[in-house]
Amino acid sequence: MKADPKRVLTGNHFMNGNHSATEGAIAAGCTFAAGYPITPSTEIVERIASRFPRVGGCFVQMEDEIAASICLQGGIWAGRKSMTVTSGPGFSLMMESIGLAAITEAPCVFINVQRCGPSTGLPTKVGQADMMQAKWGSHGDYEVIALAPSSPQDCFDFTIDCFNLAEQYRTPVFLMSDEMVGHMTEKVVIPSADEIELVERKYYSGSGPYLPYKAEANGIPLMSKAGLGHNYHITGLTHDERGYPVLTKEVQEEMMTRLMGKINKDADKLTRVEEHMMEDADIVLVSYGISFRMAYKAMEMAREKGLKVGLLRIITCWPFPETKVREIAKKVKSMIMVELNYGQLYLEMDRFANAHCKTGLVGSSCGEVHEPEEIFNAIQEITK
User: Fold this and answer.
1) Could you tell me if 137 and 98 are in contact, meaning their C-beta atoms sit under 8 angstroms apart?
2) N or C of the chain: less Cβ packing under 10 Å?
3) Which of 195, 229, 253 is the last residue of a domain?
């Protein structure tokens, strides 16, 4: 399925990451968004409010982030591709609804433009400390998919990817942006509509009764929407194929095995990384989001000094690329995570790599990006 030309702002643009993510959502076919303004993500909802009326979309400003994260699920069952947008404190308020989206298998997109916390923290400063919350923030077991952009161009491209993944796996998907990427302005190339591949929502069209949680061969159920003539029950309780609450151990186990399995079985296929200067590297920096750009500069500095340093950029943060990390760790002496928190994805890297090589962390939560010299000093330290 190709994008609708009326929804694609084809051409070369000079725009920030927040506006670029908005254009990605529109190109992806999103026609419903609910949100509440919060720094540093507000530019997204402002642009949505301006652009949606021109392309057949509807934006609703809710009274808070809790209401926004519930409202978007109504949009889904009305047949709309739906999203919400927030930052740190608002993301915390959305956690219960994220659990609801996971158990009801609602295909939706959450854009989190991360800032420095906890609590109100430094609202206008950059952070990457919501990464574990994206994976584990709601109660109970569930799996999610999360991508981390490092540029305004990524914001456009990855937002489309988020919507495609949400439809493909019938699951909530997260774009884990950050204040710096959201507010930086760079060239963004938006291709023509016929170059943008979209995943179309799959609706039940059979003659028998509709079972909203009866899995297809791929483990993913077909959807319905208002107007198709189906009766269906949607609940956050443990449910059977009909969507009816059945509160037994057996049904819980069957439901959770399928819910988690549909993502876990494709974990290696879902994980995306970029490798830079890895051919001869014996020290590897690992990073994502805005921190990747600082790590790249530090890698160049190290190379100029004769150090064999490579860089692994994580694009898909969840599922974490454990197979790739293990593979690299067996070949190198050290791996160093660079991130704007005190070790959230470092903990993941370390548990897959430390049996094979030394690991280190260049972490910070001061609200500013790392200086490349700081990362270079850590490279020197770990080589001693």
Assistant:
1) yes
2) C
3) 195
